[in-house]
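Ticket #187: bound-state structure for glycinamide ribonucleotide.
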Amino acid sequence: MKHIAIFASGNGSNTEAIIGYFKGHPSVNVALVVTNNPEAGVIKIAHSNKIISAIVSKNALNDPEILGRLIAALNIDMIVLAGFLQLIPAYLLERFPQRIINIHPALLPKYGGKGMYGIKVHEAVLSQGDAETGITIHFVNENYDEGEVILQKATTIDKSDTPETIALKVQVLEHEWFPRTIEKLLL
Ligand code: GAR
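RESOLUTION: The complex was predicted; output attached.
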């Protein structure tokens, strides 16, 4: 069995999609949900799916003796960032080479980097008049929204689109492609 940890800071729609996809899966198990935000929706989602959750301060995240120990104890094979707003510390990058992945709601390298999160990304895309946007799934390195691209999927932008309608289109792509990309990388 491969064990994954999901790191998330927000509502957790991707976390929910990933947990749902792997429910009853013969060889992949969501073993841990980590958040830096005590208000995050992901805590409830983890709880209702009987998955261990951990709320970590910046210090705990960066401390191999705290989060690092928990991850080792749960035999985690892969870390999945699903809307996680903190940088991943070096000890985890070293421990999980090509085993930490992130999803971003745009076609990187456009519209990425610190502060580029949620609706801000879609507002930026719309203000540039781009004909399309999409999702990027990529390996994580020490910078925000960088690292080798694993998969991109695009969707068109229509004249009538708003940041909110773009967010919905992008979310459909995220929920469709993130779980199966995780599965493909693990198996
Ligand atoms: C997702 O759209 C994800 O692509 C984005 O955060 C959202 C989390 O939504 N990530 C980034 O912007 C990373 N820079 P969710 O909490 O509903 O899964």
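RESOLUTION NOTES: The first helix runs from residue 13 to 22.
TICKET STATUS: resolved
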